[in-house]
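Internal QA ticket QA-208
Title: Verify multi-chain structure generation after dependency bump
Assignee: T.L.

Test input:
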Amino acid sequence: MNYIFTILLSFFLLIPSVRAQEDAYSYMDTDEYPGEVLEISPEEFEELLHPPSDLADNDPFESINRVTFGVNNFLDDVLLDPVSAMYVGVVPEFLRERVGYFLRNLSEPIVLVNNILQGEMQDAEDTLRRFAINSTVGLGGILDVSTDLDIPYKREDFGLTLASWGFEEGPYIVLPILGPSNLRDTIGRIGDYGFDSINWWAYFTDDNALYSYTRTAAQVLDSRSDNIDIIKDLKENSLDPYGAFRTWYTERRRNLSSKNEGRIIETAQPEDEDEEVLEDDEY
Amino acid sequence: MKKVVFTLFSFLTWIHIAHAETNCEAAKTFMSDMGENVISLLTNQSISDKERADQFRIILETQFNLKAIGKFVLGRYWKQASDEEKQTFLNLFKEATVATYASRFKDYTSEKFEIRSCHVEPDGGVIVSSQIARPSGQTIPINWKIFEKKGEMRVYDVILEGISMGITQRSEFSSVIQNGGGKLEALNKALEKKTSQS
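Actual output:
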């Protein structure tokens, strides 16, 4: 149960703040990976990394996923939604924010491990400073002093680390209770669970398991209250909520991944059937 | 020969980029005007829902390229559809968008719309970055993809927190069409049902 809630956190606490980072392709140019890696052209590499643009093609388990999605929605409706609505209704925003920052501070060590694994030493330093400042001056994390000092929180998790190492997303998967994921991020969640010092602490001192459970429960509540608008919106305004969640999750993860820093998003183009054909050939 | 072609190619690309740079600032102005318009419209509590929807529709028709967006979100199904189906779809698509967005921001009251920056993309379009600042202090980043054609600027995509609405809708629509036996008709029916509800 503890495990489930911890990984639930890693999914729900997705915070969309991506900062400029090294291009993941750059490792191809180093001497560390000679030979076969360099035999792939960047274009081919790009093609390998990017799943088909039509997301439906990346969902071989769609029929099973849809069933899981339905069950998850049912659980949301009867359990999570009412509880988080109550939390939002009863607890004032100021306090909810304190709880949110406190929990996020506890998860900074996981971010740190991932910064190091990605080889992003500047980020690692920032995370370490954040954790040190917020844990002390920020009164154990309830105040986010670091952000005011211009060291904003930057989410990382092992799924994103795997992405930076060049792992593909793999097929889209809806996990029971946890919701949208893909093969890579599912493995990532298991990794993050291992990086979480609180879990180890709870594991080695049986008496402290209760703290660990309390934390995970609080995390779920906190992340739910944060995301309640977007979840509601996706459910209510979409013709096919399953497809909407699939896109939302996939696009969000791509956006968070440093590999896609500065990526060009494919969009509609001006009509080019007639006189503009020539002009388009220029590039 | 190759060299000549390459030089010519670079030159043309350069002209294109140089031309696009001037578009960048113009696109910012364009977005800033429209953003103010939309925000004041969506947050104006004194007009009725119907008036709000009507005015929002006018903005969509005049400031967005709905045909290009419609074509994009249908993807491969656009080519397979008859002209009549396409027309029906474009109308329903517009109405569904009006219905969704006119009601989505009902709770917004004192939001601020700010233009942040702009840059030219390799495809010749301009991305204008903006954000909506909510009274709670939360900011929502929104990027707008703008192309200029025949001297007129139009929005071609809205990218909300890094997520393209065009791609989101294309995926959603293709899933509806696939589950409806690969027919555009299935999507049109679903859109019709949705617009008649609201």
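Spot checks passed. Chain A has one domain: 42-259.
Status: verified.
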